[in-house]
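> run fold HAT C-terminal dimerisation domain-containing protein
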Amino acid sequence: MPDADTPEPPLNSSHMTLAKKAELIKKWADNKQKHVRKKRDKNSHVYWYMQREAIEGSFYSEYKDGPKIFQEFRWTCIECLQNPSTLRKRFQVLESNRRGVTSGMGDHLKIHRITKESHYARINGYGRAIGGGDYTEADAWSGRPRQRARLTAKESIRRWFVKHRQPFSVVETPAFQEMFLAHNTTCAYRSRITLRNHIHTDFVERREKLKIEFEYNCSTISFTLDIWTAPNRVPIFAIIAHWITPEFEEREEVIEFIELQESHTGEQLAKIVESTLEELRLKPKLLAITGDNAGNNGTLCQSLYDSLKTKFDDKVSPIGRPRMRFHGRKSWIRCLAHITSLICEGVLQDLKAGTAKEAKKMLDKWDEENKSNNYTIPGDSSRSGIAKIRLLNLWILRSGPREQDFKSMPRTHYRKPIYDVDTRWNSAYDMIDQFLELEAEYTEFVDTHPQVKCLLPLSEEIVALYQLRKVLKPFKDHTLKVSEAMPPISQSLDIYWDLEALLDDVVEGVGDFADLDMSIRNAFSKGKAKHITYMKKLDDQMMLFAAHILDPRYKTHQLEMMIPDQYSEIMAKVKKYFKTEWPGLARLNATNSTMSQSRPAERPQGVSIAQWRAIEMKKAKEAEAGAAIPISELERWFATPRIEFDESIAKSPDFLRKWWKEHKGEWPLLAAAARDLLSVSGSEVDVERLFSGCRDEFGIRRQALKADTVRVLTLLRSAYTREDNVDQTLIKAAMEYDILPFANSIIWRPDHIPGKLVDGENPPPQPPAPAEVPTEAPTGAPAEPPTPKPPASQTDKSAISTPYPDTMEVSED
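> ok
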């Protein structure tokens, strides 16, 4: 789409205030931004096989006599470098000659039998034909090489049905079978019964593989769990497991999705959790459970603890009883998103916002009393502005003609009135935001439908709604941040403190909230009281403080700064927690403890007494200093300074896990603690997402689908997703190792590599050559042979550079 010519705002009018001009400029800028063409990513397959290097001192202009000057680059075919030929010229092209066009590169790669289709197959784990390189393997019978495939035909079909939630009967439809015939092949399945049986067999095999995974790659495990009522009124209890591998890779998988046959008490839920732990042999490995603030979750944790305590001890036993890591309510992590939701729901309740359930009952009552839906809504002076908007939206949606009348206006043509959901407080914010945005349209609609005239908020109520939207916006952003990021508990304290600071600003009327109405500030005072209640409950959850301290960016600095009155008490509890959960941290370092006990040597011959006493004094000072060094790994961690970091590191969600992966040799005992704690999630939003996706499982024609079948499909879908993610990572790593043994290569995301020159800056430095580390092949694939290095004449940068790049011979086959 070409760039839209958006006229500049008319700012010559003398009667406009500065505020109006600023608002007009902002609207103009936002409108123009919508029509500006975004820069496209360089995602062509040719960049996987081309090496780019900067030509020092050579530049070119974007257009003839244009103002923008760019660094000149030379692109060289990596396949030509790896397999030099005396009969074929090495392919090279200048950036100034190709101007972003990839057709010449693509035509040349066809000489090496590389096309867009073969590359797409290869990055998905499907090799080229016989003799096609790494992604071929020997046939079991003939020994001849055959095409490498990540999945067989039957496996891929089963995976498609499971991952896309398709009914098994689809496989028997003529249209589905014809799709394969059109591709000159036949479908591996024709019977829904066979397909179903193979899927169940696949589930049993994956369950056994999961047990092996837990046995060897899982030291501790944490759960997120919740209850959901499906569209066919079946109550479902779901559990998602989280763990960290020895290489500090995150893993998660749905391990239970079961129908609740009895009451939803904590005792009944504890039995299901214990049964799952028994099946997967995870009883001694359970570390924490993350759930919402419902009372049955606390009962669940305590009942589970009491049951496990009969066979396990929750600390190192002097009589040799097996140890478990679960501590009942102390191991219950309250969902951060749910806490924010409870605070905001309390605020809205204090403002008499009401609920959608109450509004629907009210409309049902009026419909029944008037025997129609064409009556005048009775007024009520106690009805709040939020309640009026909700009733108005529900009234519109109860009639098709009324909804069409609402959509007949230009700005509402593709929009639907929003009403809030009782379990999602931020939907109330969306409802208020939509009304204020479409205030003129709502006014026009009410003018044409006088029976709901009393539901249009008054001017003072609209002012209050503007203020409420302003104050709820940061709380919605906070909720979305927690929901999207799924932060580990190492970030929980930061989130609690941020929420506390936001509540303080609102209650005290600081900064942007200085003009808030007193009623809104009083409502948030009650929300703050609820937040303080949850903050006090953190005193018994040393797991959160321990995870926070293991962040090398913070250690104890933030605790000392944010809770100075409780700092000493908290630190004493945290140290005790570390030494109890990881007893190795209580052991002293023998090297440091014996340093000061070494006996001094005798004075060597030829050394004066004065010199010898000076040497002895120096040794004594060194021994004294050595004795002062902390002699346990935990104390050494507290004594070492925090690492310096910039904003990019502070925002990186994977920084902590990657840091401990790199430093586990330096801090072996604390790395084990970090591996355990990093698996614990601060919210259970992933279970909510699982439920949202499973709504499609119970479609209009699938209401009779058995809960056991849904369980198999859901658990198998989760296993498939995890396997696919691991396979794609391994395939990409294998291709990197196979294609990229060269320096100065820009392959994976060329658009993210600094290549352009900004006016007045020097050319960007080129990255160093990547270290050649053998990479594991995908599961079931033969080991990758080491890639032979090209001759020095090919990898040397100077060997392929020319003193006059503009006259360089270019070959574009």
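The longest helix spans residues 707-739.
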